[in-house]
Amino acid sequence: MSARASILAVTSGKGGVGKTFFSANLAAALARQGERVLVLDADLGLANLDVVLNLQPKITLHDVFTGKATLDQAILAAPGGFSVVLAGSGLVEYSRLTPQVREQLVEIIDQLAPRYDRILLDTGAGISDVVLHAISLADDVLVIATPEPTSMTDAYATIKLLAIQQGRRSIRLVVNQVSAVGEGRTIRNQLQLVVDRFVCPQLNGGNSAAVALDLQGEIPTDAAVRESVQRRSLLLERAPGAPAALAVVAIAARMARAGAAINPAAAPSTSVAEGR
Ligand SMILES: Nc1ncnc2c1ncn2[C@@H]1O[C@H](COP(=O)(O)OP(=O)(O)OP(=O)(O)O)[C@@H](O)[C@H]1O
Ligand SMILES: [Mg+2]
């Protein structure tokens, strides 16, 4: 097991493209592979992870921020065998990045990191200061886009900002709601072209600087997704054989393989993970 969790921020630009659905189900798939996983609801303004997981948290990040509860008390067991820390809905006062929010998020992640193999940050829609700050605390960032033109434009704007402001040179991409096999690759290539043409020349090093969009996989549009959200259950549990569920499992397997190639000691075991 690695000493510190690998932190992955899940973001999109455009809202409603499937960040929360993906984060929750990816966490379940990674947990099934033996990883100790925690999902942090980093959508401080309009959290909905609790809705998707059918959890009614008594203690949320809000209580940790205001000193009413400890972080340990805010860590909940999610149905998929992973842990979650929920933001609680209507944390409006935290949707702005004050120095206090900035510091507390850093502290919370520092405390959580040694205890898990992977932490997923489910960020809110858009690229507000809070979202950018949460992303800056992550080792890697994964952008979710759909084939819709508005989603692609917003994904591009997000990628541009991450490359320029945060110096990101490798950004993971998941294309959700595809209608044909291979559409994800096409969209990745289209985005990569605009990034090469318009973003790379603005970076230090000019044309020699590269930003790689690393396609993690594509997820088909699947009625079972909407159904699972409506029933407030994980797709992986409700319809494990659904095409979208299989796609998420394949992405998790790919991530685990990539992690094992970089750090063989961190390869997930198949035994039941401790610490949930
Ligand atoms: N692959 C899919 N197939 C069908 N419907 C999908 C798929 N992915 C997402 N959806 C639909 O999109 C809705 C929004 O998904 P989700 O809440 O995960 O988006 P989000 O990006 O987290 O939104 P927000 O930006 O508001 O946080 C889901 O409730 C579901 O109905
Ligand atoms: Mg969401």
Task: Explain how this protein is built.
The chain is an alpha/beta fold. The chain folds into two domains: 18-24 and 35-139, 3-Layer(aba) Sandwich (Rossmann fold); 140-221, no CATH class. Helices cover 42% and strands 17% of the residues. It has helices at 19-32, 49-53, 61-65, 71-74, 99-112, 129-136, 149-165, 183-199, 223-230, 235-238, 243-262, and strands at 6-11, 37-42, 75-77, 83-85, 118-123, 140-145, 170-178, 212-220. Strands 3-4-2-5-1-6-7-8 form an eight-stranded mixed sheet, sandwiched between helices. The two termini are 14 Å apart. 45% of the residues are buried. The model is unreliable at 266-276 (pLDDT under 50). The protein binds adenosine-5'-triphosphate (ATP) and magnesium ion. Residues 19-20, 43, 48, 122 line the site of magnesium ion (MG).
**N-to-C CA distance:** 14 Å
Give the number of domains.
Answer: 2
The distinct ligands, each listed once, are:
adenosine-5'-triphosphate, magnesium ion
Question: What name is given to the CATH topology of the largest domain?
Answer: Rossmann fold
CATH architecture of the largest domain: 3-Layer(aba) Sandwich
Low-confidence stretches: 266-276
Biggest sheet features: 8 strands, mixed
Class by alpha and beta content: alpha/beta
